[in-house]
Specification:
- The structure holds 2 protein chains of 2 kinds.
- By secondary structure, chain A is of the alpha+beta class.
- Chain A has 2 domains: 3-135, CBS-domain (Roll); 145-210, ACT domain (Alpha-Beta Plaits, 2-Layer Sandwich), CATH 3.30.70.
- Helices cover 36% and strands 21% of the residues of chain A.
- In chain A, the strands form 3 sheets. A 4-stranded antiparallel β-sheet of chain A has the order 6-7-5-8, covered by helices on one side.
- Chain A is elongated and about 75 Å long.
- Chain A starts with 19 loop residues before the first helix and ends with a strand.
- In chain A, 24% of the residues are buried.
- Chain B has a single domain (7-318), classed as Arginase, Chain A.
- Helix content of chain B is 37%, strand content 14%.
- Classes of the chains: A alpha+beta, B alpha/beta.
- Chains A and B meet through helix 8 of A and loops of B.
Chain lengths: 213, 320
């Protein structure tokens, strides 16, 4: 669950004195959309994105004369002049849940990961988050399926489910209880077996109702 | 006195020796015994010809599987391991030999069809195969019989365009893996939707890769889907795809676990559906393959429903 295991490290970085055409070339050549900006001590001081660049460059619908004026300005502009300086960062001990929360809250595509000295040690993108959760929950792996059961409202439903699955040596990678307003809760289990009938029977025997879509 | 076309049933004593460890494991020798008993009492009985499967060269397995995987499987069986890779794939001392012979039986069927000794071959084999991948046992399967049959047909008899029609309740991930980049093999699978069913593959948008784009057709059905939905898929999707591909040979991955009584899937097919399927497959074999058709047993775990459904399927196939 810790970011250290899922981040991209080391991160490609730029310095604040680099001009915008150069940073655009770097982003395009690596197919990146975000680059951390660091000082001489490798300390994170900002973030530059393809969106920042699009805003700085002239619109293609402008007349040519105005375009050339803006373009001339852009070519002399440094990263430091347009980068974002208010940054949310992760540490190696941040969790995937932390990253999900910050990425969603700030509506950004990538978060830098820094150590205790604010030196950059990696980056963590939305794509990294999806890959990590996919792996964590066994999504897309051959040999699994999801089962939904209705919470029977009796004591310790999750304990009873885990006990019966482990007794049967049924591998599972996810067990989630979802609250439903005004209705009974739903429990989702991703099981890794072809013997879904065995799982169904065992769950029914402990009083669970299998939910069919 | 009813009159039917002759069907060759491929059998071997080793198929009963693959022991999945008792308990409530559903892939058991009783499946084949029930089929044999049912067919012996069927009006089809006088039209059935039993042939014993023959061993096949080890080389034929390398058309898909890694040699190191064969060694790993053999060693696991002979050293007394109880499963290969995952507890679903239970094995015993004889399982490796049984699995070799399971594939062997399918290739025996092809030899009979090509020599003119048979037109309709039903390979009553176990263990099943369509989940097995290059170096992976999965879902009770060890060697991918259908894949190896397709490769053998192409290599030995130069039948270049093969269509595989898989109506087991589960998606044949191994078949798709083997042929998804190969434009010479059309793989069609009708199965319970991967969100709710093992092995979690076979979404409708998986339609082949690179040069094989368009020669994979996945038709996932919702849990509860019945005969009507199955037949609708056959008419609207399978029929035109087959017509544009025009196969030289057709292999059926015949799984019977979509039956309403079979709790290995949520599908709700009736016994009677399998007769209609048999009639349809026979019609396609006439249309494209001079009446020749190879059917390979895959799943089907409710013993009585399996036996009854196999009989219905063969009645449909053999109808004159």
């Amino acid at each position: 669950m810790y970011i250290a295991r899922h981040m991209t490290s080391p991160a490609l970085t730029v310095t604040p004195d680099i001009l915008l055409p150069e940073v655009r070339r770097i982003l395009n050549s690596h197919h990146f959309r975000h680059l951390p900006v660091v000082d001489d001590e490798k300390q994170l001081i900002g973030m530059i994105t393809d969106r920042d660049l699009r805003s700085a460059y002239p619109s293609s619908v402008l007349d040519e004369e105005k375009r050339q004026v803006i373009l001339a300005g852009v070519e002399k502009t440094t990263v430091a002049e347009i980068m974002s300086r208010e940054l949310c960062t992760l540490t190696p001990h941040s969790t995937l849940d932390d990253a999900l929360y910050f990425l969603s809250r700030d509506k950004v595509g990538m978060l830098p990961v820094v150590d205790e000295n604010k030196q950059i040690i990696g980056v963590f993108s939305v794509q990294d988050l999806m890959s990590a959760y996919k792996k964590l929950y066994g999504i897309g792996e051959r040999g699994s399926a999801i089962i939904a059961v209705e919470d029977d409202g009796l004591a310790k439903p999750l304990t009873r489910i885990v006990k019966v699955l482990e007794e049967l040596d049924i591998h599972f990678s996810r067990l989630t209880r979802v609250k439903n307003e005004g209705r009974k809760d739903t429990i989702y289990i991703r099981v890794h077996t072809m013997r879904l009938n065995t799982v169904h029977t065992a769950l029914k025997q402990i009083g669970m109702t299998i939910m069919v879509p | 006195m009813p009159d039917f076309r002759t069907i060759t049933i491929i059998n071997h004593p080793l198929y009963l020796e693959h022991d999945t460890g008792g308990g409530d494991h559903p892939e058991v020798p009783e499946r084949l015994l029930a089929i044999r008993q049912r067919l012996a009492q069927s009006p089809l009985a006088p039209f059935l010809s039993e042939v014993k499967a023959e061993e096949t060269d080890r080389e034929n397995f390398f058309a898909y599987h890694d040699e190191s995987y064969l060694f790993r499987f053999e060693e696991a069986a002979l050293s007394g391991k109880t499963y290969l890779g995952h507890p679903d794939n239970q094995i015993c001392f004889e399982s490796y030999q049984a699995a070799l012979m399971s594939t062997g039986g399918c290739l025996t069927g092809i030899d009979l069809l090509e020599s003119g000794k048979a037109d309709l071959a039903f390979c009553a084999v176990r263990p099943p195969g369509h989940h097995a991948e290059r170096a992976l046992a999965l879902g009770f399967c060890f060697f991918n019989n259908v894949v190896l049959a397709g490769k053998y047909w192409q290599k030995k008899y130069k039948r270049e365009k093969i269509a595989i029609i898989d109506w087991d309740a589960h998606h044949g991930n191994g078949i798709q893996d083997a042929f998804e980049e190969d434009p010479t093999v059309l793989y069609i699978s009708i199965h319970e939707h991967p969100t709710f069913s093992f092995p979690g593959t076979g979404y409708a948008d998986e339609d082949g890769i690179g040069p094989g784009r368009g020669t994979t057709l996945n038709i996932p059905l919702s849990p509860g889907a019945d005969d009507t939905m199955f037949l609708h898929s056959i008419d609207k999707l399978v029929e035109p795809t087959l017509a544009s591909f025009r196969p030289e040979r057709i292999i059926i991955a015949a799984g019977f676990d979509g039956h309403v009584l079979d709790d290995m899937s949520g599908l709700s097919y009736s016994t009677g559906l399998y007769k209609k399927i048999g009639e349809k497959m026979a019609a396609w074999s006439h249309q494209y393959c001079q009446g020749k058709l190879l059917s390979i047993l895959e799943g089907g775990y409710h013993i009585e429903a399996l036996a009854a459904s196999v009989e219905e399927y063969l009645l449909g196939l053999a109808k004159k």
